[in-house]
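User: I'm preparing a small set of examples for a lab meeting where we compare how different chains pack in three dimensions. I only have the primary sequence for this one, and I'd like the structure in token form so I can line it up with the others. Please keep the answer compact; I'll paste it straight into my notes.
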Amino acid sequence: MMDPIALFSTAFAFFVVAASPGPATISNATVAMGQGRRTGLVYGLGLSLGLTFWGLIAASGVGALLQGSLRALTILKILGGLYLLWLALQSARSALRPAPNTHVVSAGRNWFLRGLLLNLSNPKAVVAWMAALSVGLDPGSDAGSVAIATAMCAAIGFATYALYAVVFSIGGMMNGYLRFRRATEGAVAALFAAAGFSLIRSACAR
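Assistant: Understood. Below is the structure token output for the 206-residue chain.
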């Protein structure tokens, strides 16, 4: 059974990784501010399942093999980078559009899929998972300890995205977003573009 201190160390390390500003968390906040709490939670659920997928890859040991496979990792990085650039284009187009007359909240499968695809397109998540799991696990850890640590981190990921959705869907946050919508969407577009180009550059540099 996993030592409580090791479990806490893994949980804290993963929370830092999951909560740190990045394409997933910033887009989660933007969706919550622009579309409301319900849509933010749906989007966050997609993000968390995408993150959990990479956690299962890392925990099963395939993550280490993926890191060692130059061709597979390069293809994943290029595809992920292209998807991030597509998201940057969508955000930039949204920033150029005039503000709508009414604030429309749209929740559903599309937002879930967008969140899912965003984290699925980021193979660097394998590295983040392996780093967090390595804090509390060692080569001698049994399958039960690995399963507990992975499940705990997956729950932390969901809770983090849900927290982002709740906090950034508060009335004041949403009003601020509507006031500075174009600047916010423009900043998000720049972030996605930078992340996309960085991912593609790292793939081509190997």
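A couple of notes for your slides: Residues 70-96 form the longest helix (27 residues). Residues 101-108 have pLDDT under 50 and may be disordered.

User: Perfect, thanks.
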